[in-house]
Amino acid sequence: MFTGIIEELGKIQGLRGLAGERIFTIAAPGLSPLKPGESVAVNGVCLTVTECTPAGFTVQVSPQSLDRSTLGKLRVGEKVNLERALRPTDRIGGHLVSGHVDGVGKIRRIEPEGNSRRVWISCPEEVAPYLVLRGSVAVEGISLTVAELKTEEFAVAVIPFTWDNTSLKEKSPGSLVNLEADQIGKYVEKFTRGRSGAKRTALFEE
Asked: N or C: which end of the chain has fewer CB within 10 A?
């Protein structure tokens, strides 16, 4: 479990394929000391550390995670948002984020808003039912608030600190981003559909 508060902006140093999977070596000296077996969110995707050094760590990404996220499009030299798993004693500065991506959106436009930016993102059908105005959403692992909501897109307001200290500053219209809806909305949807006898969505298929 994570909170969507990015701890470090890492960099992909190495990439290789293995039987449909990908192995990434990520430079992240600020996250040390890590241990093998520890969970780290990389652009909002929960991954397991397989090797670590004082300068960074290695993770292995399954075919399913590659298919459901933007990780398969990462290249050497790209920057990634990193967050270690939440400890019971930590403050929850953002919102509860599982690290399981629900869908991939596309940045449609980035509008200046004072010193901040309003980022408009397409809303895939896997995520749309769980977005509410002024509710939480994780974008590339970053806990953000839904500032505007339309039928096929939504906007998040990004303050200068978040822009400067995450991978969002590397994005432009057309960039793909990982999206995870708020956990509370998913549980409410499952509960209400279960009581009404309605068919479950793909997110809850057994």
From this structure: C
| Mean per-residue pLDDT, 79-107 | 91
8-84 fold: Elongation Factor Tu (Ef-tu); domain 3 (2.40.30)
Residue 122 Ramachandran class (φ > 0 left, ψ -120 to 50 alpha, else beta): beta
Domain 8-84 and domain 103-196 have a common topology: yes
**What is the reported pLDDT for 194?**
62
**CATH class of segment(s) 103-196:** mainly beta
Which residue in the block uniquely carries the two structure tokens 């960039």?
A: 175
At 124 the three-state DSSP class reads coil
Q: How far apart are CA 122 and CA 156, in angstroms?
A: 11
Strands 21-27 and 8-18, how do they pair? antiparallel
Domain ranges in the chain? 8-84, 103-196
**DSSP code of residue 93:** S
- Half-sphere exposure at residue 120, Cβ-oriented, CA atoms within 13 angstroms: 13
pLDDT, tens digit, 9 for 90 and up, residues 161-201: 999 999 999 999 999 999 999 887 777 777 777 665 555 44
DSSP 1: -
